[in-house]
Design goal:
By secondary structure, this protein is of the alpha+beta class. About 35% of the residues lie in helices and about 20% in strands. Helix 1 packs across helix 4.
C-alpha cells in the first residue's frame, strides 16, 4: 500500500459510523483499494500515475464496468489524502452512510458471506 492508502486505512479500519471497510478487496476481475459492502462503495486512491499514458482510459473502462455491475466508485487523489486525511475519511463515511443515487444492479455479484 502507498502512504496515502495507509493513512486512509488507519482512518477507515475501525468501522467509523458503524460502516465496515475492507482493503484490497476483489470485485469482479478487479481489486478495489477500499470497499464498503453496505453501500457497495469502492474507494480508489489515485496517485500521479493515474494521469499518464493510457491509465485514464483504463480507469474509465474499469469504473464503467463497476458502475454497470451495481457499484459506486469514488476516486480520491493521493495529494488530497496527504493534505487532510481526516476530512477525506469523514467525507467517505458520510457518502457511504447515505448514498444519493445508488441502487445495486440485480445482475451484480452477490455479497460475500456476512456482508448482506
Amino acid at each position: 500500500m502507498t502512504l496515502p492508502e495507509v493513512m486512509l486505512w488507519q482512518q477507515l479500519h475501525s468501522s467509523p459510523g458503524g460502516l465496515r471497510f475492507r482493503r484490497q478487496h476483489p470485485v469482479g476481475c478487479y481489486v478495489a483499494d477500499f470497499f464498503c459492502a453496505k453501500s457497495r462503495l469502492i474507494i480508489e486512491v489515485d496517485g500521479a500515475v493515474h494521469g499518464v499514458e493510457t491509465r485514464p482510459i483504463r480507469d474509465s473502462a474499469r469504473d464503467r464496468y463497476l458502475n454497470d455491475n451495481g457499484y459506486w466508485v469514488l476516486r480520491i487523489g493521493a495529494a488530497e489524502i496527504l493534505r487532510d486525511v481526516e476530512a477525506v475519511a469523514a467525507s467517505i463515511v458520510s457518502l457511504a452512510a447515505a448514498p444519493l443515487h445508488h441502487s445495486p444492479a440485480a445482475s451484480g455479484p452477490p455479497p460475500r458471506s456476512g456482508e448482506e
